[in-house]
Amino acid sequence: MVVKMKTPTIPITEIEQSAFCQTDDELKAKSLEEEFDAGVRWQKLPVSYMRMSPEELDDRITEARAKLGSRVVILGHHYQRDEIIKFADYRGDSFKLSLLAASMKDSEFILFCGVHFMAETADILSAPHQKVVLPNLTAGCSMADMARIDDVLDCWDDLRDVLGEDHGVTPITYMNSTAAIKALCGRNDGIVCTSSNAAATFKWAYEKGERVLFIPDQHLGRNTGVKMGIDLEEMIVWNPFKPLGGNTEDEIRNARLILWQGHCSVHTRFTVDQIEQAREKFPKVQVLAHPECTMEVVQAADYNGSTEFIKNFVSEAAPGSVIAVGTEISMIKRLAAENPDKTVFCLDSVVCPCSTMYRIHPAYLSWVLDGLNEGVVVNQISVDEETAEQSRVALDRMLTVESPTRTQAKAKSPSLHQA
Ligand code: SF4
User: Fold this and answer.
1) Ligand 1 test: best mutation among 146, 357, 358, most atoms within 8 Å of CB?
2) Which pLDDT value is given to residue 402?
3) 198 Cβ below 6 A of ligand 1
4) CATH architecture designation of domain 144-265
5) Among 243, 250, 362, 397, who pairs with 191 as Cys (CB 3.0-4.6 Å)?
């Protein structure tokens, strides 16, 4: 077996994550020129858009949107800023928006206000005559960037070398991954999952094989494995920069769940201490955590579930409820504003939006809408046909498994212990 040494690298999106963090709780729109001061990469665009005030951009977007009429549909992820969400025809999490993209065959353009992997999935699922546009091409995702296809292919080869051709490993990739990784899952009897149906996809995978390779979020993978009753000792973490992922051959042979060493820079900010402080301050607080949080946080929370689950939980809670949430701040602030009869707040007192989602500034939305009105498709996201076809196989498999809507974290798995 050839042992490959690699230089560890940190995705630029991870390094830039804290660029928009602030200690006061204002996340007010500024002109793009002012926001350029945040130390992140921005896509270049005509300078006139950079100088427009929030009000000018508002008017301009409204006008351009009206001119396009039903030729365009705007999809907005829950983590987008308010100044974008107000123009979204539909809002949802990545799964809901992908399904919407697949069903809206009448619109010529799907303008995806989210991040790169979501626009790719929309392109895969949309009809051939539709064009998907991402307003700012630097809106990536640090988690997706932690799993590069070449590294995942190396891992797949290593697993085959250690376990043999008949290795019984089913690859499951979280929606938050590149199209190339979804395609790898499609051609290797694997599947895509979301945070709401991860357990159902694990069940599907273990019914046909003895092992799962979960890419790219180790925390969602671990939390789901624990929920399925898999012991932590049967899980290993695959570090793509170390030979055999940093594991021995025996550890690989004994593993039932191989977790790619990736994480979400936003959800790993939450801590058990923050939960304890929220409980001290509000003894009746209900704590909700997204399953991209660490296992310790998910286990300490009262409930955990997907973005849609969190949204529904807050909307359906009784008036007067106090709810602390561990997820992206733009969404929590919107939930708080839409539920004024409840106290809804973020577990983390530092205001830290997802820095890649936040890069969809209204200036970019205005720029791409103007382009469409002038017959120019700016920032089209296009996945090549072979990759798209193989990805569709894995996405279609996902649609065949059931997805529970609510997960209560208090029912802890008896197998849980510190690794
Ligand atoms: S919140 Fe995390 S997983 Fe979601 S887009 Fe941002 S970095 Fe990626």
Assistant:
1) 357
2) 65
3) no
4) 3-Layer(aba) Sandwich (3.40)
5) 397
State the pLDDT at residue 415. 28
Superfamily of domain 267-346: NadA-like (3.40.50.10800)
Decide whether any atom of ligand 1 lies within 6 Å of the 354 Cβ. yes
Q: Which residue has the tokens 């705007």?
A: 74
Percent of the chain with pLDDT over 90: 76
Q: Using one digit for the tens of pLDDT, what is the confidence trace for 142-191?
A: 999 999 999 999 999 999 999 998 889 999 999 999 999 999 999 999 99
Interval between CA 142 and ligand 1 midpoint (Å): 6
The model's pLDDT over 32-72, given as tens digits with 9 standing for 90+, comes to 888 777 777 788 899 999 999 999 999 999 999 999 999 99
- Minimum-distance ligand 1 atom for the alpha carbon of 115: 5
pLDDT tens-digit profile of 97-147?
Answer: 888 888 888 999 999 999 999 999 999 999 999 999 999 999 989 999 999
Atom of ligand 1 nearest to the CA of 79: 1
Task: Give the pLDDT score at 408.
Answer: 42
Instruction: Write down the pLDDT at residue 254.
Output: 97
- How many whole angstroms from 396 Cα to the centroid of ligand 1? 23
Q: What is the pLDDT of residues 391-404, one digit of tens each?
A: 999 999 998 886 55
79 CA → ligand 1 middle, Å = 9
What ligand 1 atom has the least distance to the C-alpha of 13? 7
| Domain 28-140+356-382 shares a fold with domain 267-346 | yes
Nearest CA to ligand 1 atom 3: 264
Cα(211) to ligand 1 centroid in Å equals: 27
Q: Tell me, using a 6 A CB cutoff, whether residue 175 lines ligand 1.
A: no
Indicate whether residue 264 lines ligand 1 (CB < 6 A). Answer: yes
For the domain made up of 28-140+356-382, give the CATH fold: Rossmann fold (3.40.50)
Sequence spans of domains, the chain: 28-140+356-382, 144-265, 267-346
